[in-house]
């Protein structure tokens, strides 16, 4: 999750350079230069936290309509990274040096994080879109966990040039079925495409109110070890209830897990946290799978400074967690939303966080 310092982001890759071994002379030289030379770097520092079951600016952060809700207690904090610098902007070299020397900061050349042609406005738009999507998917994940029905629509927003669907599928087509089987969401589409292991599939779409079938041979993507149709899809949902989020100027996809937990807590009788102060991060998918994020060292530090005692960390980020956990903070490793709910409930009832899986 990202917060403009500048930018506040929930998930940014954060390789870290460490200057603590730099000689005193080199450090003095950097300090001297820092007063006169602007730096084309991006710095990342711990950002603010937001309690998803609490209030923000005198408004409930998660407000649910058209469903019965229950009292909550404690905290389920989403965590952020405060980012300075980026496209079309510079950050003072003294600030770069400060972040570089900080135990909780990181510094990267701007060109490694952003394409040369990207603008700050485009970055902001992308972060905002990722946040909106993460909120919708978090609601879907929470309802899936609670056994509530909803409908997901997959609309084509773009067709990859040279891909297997070019000349067949068009923008605004709605994907309905694969090989005659109805789809109930993005995960079922992925499963249907991968099941034939590269063989051609029949894709049924709705276009201009009529259904059309196309035979398409997916291509293999080594990076993801999966087969692809070469389509860009926009996901939309029809939910039986409305969730309003009272949070602005925060972008990125990595608050999904904490949003889903907040929704589940408000829709479930009993106080899930038991009054304890939890924090965490992670993307979420409609089936409850928790994905990795960036900036986890900064997020753990921000969580600790905000008073959290337990931090929920995606299993994918464990290699970045080890050796960087602030004193007094217990880290629980989670792979699914179910893992996270069970950890919060049991710790809220008095279980020792050390009895749950952690990063090691």
Features:
360 residues, alpha+beta, Pdz3 Domain, 2 domains, eight-stranded mixed sheet, four-stranded antiparallel sheet, 9 helices, 30% strand, disordered N terminus
SSE topology sketch:
Blueprint: E1 2-4, E2 7-9, H1 24-34, E3 38-39, E4 41-51, E5 55-56, E6 59-60, E7 62-65, E8 75-84, E9 91-92, H2 93-101, E10 106-109, H3 110-113, H4 120-146, E11 151-159, E12 174-178, E13 181-182, H5 186-194, E14 201-207, E15 210-216, E16 219-221, E17 226-228, E18 231-238, E19 242-245, H6 256-267, E20 277-280, E21 283-284, E22 290-291, H7 296-305, E23 310-314, H8 318-321, E24 330-334, H9 337-348
Helix pairs in contact: 1-2, 4-6
Overview of this protein structure:
This protein has 360 residues and is of the alpha+beta class. The chain is 27% helix and 30% strand. The protein has helices spanning 24-34, 93-101, 110-113, 120-146, 186-194, 256-267, 296-305, 318-321, 337-348, and strands at residues 2-4, 7-9, 38-39, 41-51, 55-56, 59-60, 62-65, 75-84, 91-92, 106-109, 151-159, 174-178, 181-182, 201-207, 210-216, 219-221, 226-228, 231-238, 242-245, 277-280, 283-284, 290-291, 310-314, 330-334. The strands form eight sheets. Strands 1, 2, 4, 8, 10, 20, 23 and 24 form an eight-stranded mixed β-sheet that branches. The chain is globular and about 55 Å long. The model is unreliable at 1-9 and 11-38 (pLDDT under 50).
